[in-house]
Design a protein that fits this description.
Blueprint (H helix, E strand, L loop, with lengths): L11 H20 L2 H13 L3 E5 L1 H17 L3 E3 L13 E5 L6 H13 L2 E6 L5 H5 L2 E4 L5 H8 L7 H4 L4 H21 L4 H6 L6
Parallel strand pairs: 1-2, 1-3, 3-4, 4-5
Helix pairs in contact: 1-8, 3-8
């Protein structure tokens, strides 16, 4: 990137943004519906195979979770990969979409339901098309006006949308949530980090 002015960064906004994201993740943890979370963990263990899907950065978050699930010993695929097989009725499809209205994910969710597979939605919008068709939804809240007012009112009100653009807070909070789900499941099956490492790719 070319710029016509000198860059003099004091990293004030960097630190502010990190604090915003950390505070938001703590809020998400406090607001989690534990019953829904327990249900999806139960469904993970029950499923023959797990298919993960999401678009854009949400898809990258989902792919990271799929990798950790594989490390735990689950049979897991990422929708859209050339080696991913067809979904069957005894499979589980995990859909990640902040809005719950991403056209490609909603369309694939409908197909999953027509096949008869279990559909899990991770979204900020529990009134969305994706959430309404899902068997279980876990809400991961994105950015809200209250969060702006509570943290930046004194000196930077309104900049929150710039500091954490588009779906940033949803995506990062979902990543933290997924890693925490992995930690919970490790305890449930008495798995260790060494167990996960044994399934890690030797080609990295």
């Amino acid at each position: 990137m070319n710029t016509s002015h000198e860059i003099n960064c004091n990293c004030e906004n960097l630190i502010l943004t990190m604090n915003l994201i950390a505070d938001h993740a703590k809020d998400v943890a406090r607001e989690l519906d534990i019953e829904s979370v327990s249900q999806i963990i139960h469904e993970f263990f029950k499923a023959e195979r797990i298919f993960v899907m999401g678009a854009g950065r949400s898809g990258l978050v989902g792919k990271s979770f799929a990798m950790r699930m594989m490390h735990l010993g689950f049979t897991v695929f990422v929708v859209g990969e050339s080696t991913t097989p067809a979904v069957r009725d005894n499979d589980l499809v995990l859909a990640v979409s902040g809005s719950g209205e991403t056209p490609s994910i909603v369309s694939l969710g409908k197909i999953a339901k027509e096949i008869g597979s279990t559909l899990i939605a991770i979204t900020s919008n529990t009134d969305s098309t994706l959430s309404r068709m899902a068997d279980t939804t876990v809400k991961i809240r994105g950015r809200t006006k209250n969060h702006i007012d509570g943290y930046l009112e004194r000196h930077m009100k309104g900049e929150y949308r710039t500091l954490t653009p588009m779906g940033t807070t949803f995506e990062i909070s979902t990543m933290i949530f997924f890693d925490s789900v992995i930690a919970e499941m490790m305890v449930l099956i008495d798995a260790t980090e060494d167990d996960l490492r044994k399934r890690h790719s030797v080609f990295d």
